[in-house]
Structures are given as structure tokens and as C-alpha cells.
Amino acid sequence: MSFRRLAATLLLAGAAVLGTALPASAHVELKSSDPAEGASLAQLPTALTLTFTEAVTAKVDAVAVSSPGGLRWTVGTPTVAGTVVTVPVQPVGPAGPYTIEYRVNADDGHTVSGAINFTLAVDAPAPTTTTEPSVAATTPEVVATEATQQPPAAQPAAAETGVPTWIWFVVGLVVLVAIVVGLLLRSRRASTK
């Protein structure tokens, strides 16, 4: 086999590996939410829905809702069905801006977190010390109090640790090309002597 054929084969193999690996290295992202980013709600919600691009898992404290003044909604235990996370809530506080903070785990182990800002256009009941979200009647373990509910640590999704997988494929392809070019140059020098 000539060096040119070897070089072409190696380059094609490298391109094939890179082409199939890039789609698999994509990270999970929030696809949509209810309420949506920037929404204005005229009715009090009984549940929040977060839809991701791939399946996720969520801990009990994966979602929190708060106002700029620090007022927190009562949030129940998340229910995960593949890519959809549903959380029962009991809104409290006046009309105004609110933020949903979420922190879930992707199947590849990465943490996906972020925030969704929306506006409540109607007043919610005043906060109480121990209440259950309205959806909690079907799941008794959903009891969470305003005093004990803590927001998830909000970190941007880009703050993940480690080097993305696609970088390693690009580095490998560059090394492969360098080796092939080196072999071709060596072959040419040997044939000209």
C-alpha cells in the first residue's frame, strides 16, 4: 500500500470518527418551560414543567421559585418522566417578577442548571408556615415548607468541569493529520535520494 493511500485511509477514518462523535457529545439543555422565559401569568400555576433535550434526573430540591425580595413559593417533589420534569407549587406573594431556579442531572453525569424569569400578574395568598402544594394530594411525600425549602445552587450550564469530548476528537484528528503529513514528507525525501 502506498503512502498516499495510507494517508487517505487514515484521513477518512479520522473524519468518520469525528463526524459520528460530535452529535453524541452534545450536552443536555432546557428545551422549554411552563411558564416560559418572560411569561406573564394571569392565573396562579399549580405546577411547573421543564422540558429538556434529553432524559434527566432530579433531586427533591431540584427546583425553587423566589421573588427578588426573597419570598419563596412552596415547592413539592419533582416528578421526572424522561425529558420532562413536573413540580407541584403553591404560589405565595404579590404580583411581580419571580425566578425559577433549577438544577438537574443528565444521564452523562453533567449538572444542568439555570434560571427562568417570569411575572405573576395577580396576587397570590400570603405565605403560611406549613402548607402543601395543591397537586400534593396525589403524592403525600410532596410536603415542603417555605422555611425549609432552599433554592438549588444556581450555576450557569457553561460552568461544567472538564474538557468537552469533541475537543479530544479534534486534537486526535490534528495529531493523525500531522503523522500522515510527516510520513508523506519522509516518503518523498526517501524517493528523491
Strand content: 25-35%
What is the strand tally?
10
Coarse shape: rod-shaped
Task: Return the structural class.
Answer: alpha+beta
Which CATH architecture of the largest domain would you pick? Sandwich
Largest sheet: 5 strands, antiparallel
Radius of gyration: 26 Å
**What is the level 1 CATH name of the largest domain?**
Mainly Beta
Helix-strand pattern: HEEEEEEEEEEH
Portion of residues in helices?
25-40%
Number of helices: 2
Distance between the amino and carboxyl termini: 21 Å
Whole-number mean pLDDT: 76
The structural domain count equals 2
Briefly note the CATH topology name of the largest domain.
Immunoglobulin-like
Low-confidence stretches: 134-161
How are the secondary structure elements laid out?
Layout: H1 3-24, E1 30-34, E2 40-41, E3 47-52, E4 56-57, E5 63-66, E6 74-75, E7 79-81, E8 84-90, E9 96-106, E10 111-120, H2 165-192
Parallel strand pairs: 2-10
Antiparallel strand pairs: 1-3, 3-8, 4-9, 5-9, 6-8, 7-8, 9-10
Describe this structure in words.
- The protein is α+β, with helices and mostly antiparallel strands and about 190 residues long.
- It folds into 2 domains: about 5-25 and about 165-190; about 30-160, Immunoglobulin-like.
- The protein has helices spanning about 5-25, 165-190; strands spanning about 30-35, 40, 45-50, 55, 65, 75, 80, 85-90, 95-105, 110-120.
- The strands form 2 sheets. Strands 1, 3, 6, 7 and 8 form a 5-stranded antiparallel β-sheet that branches.
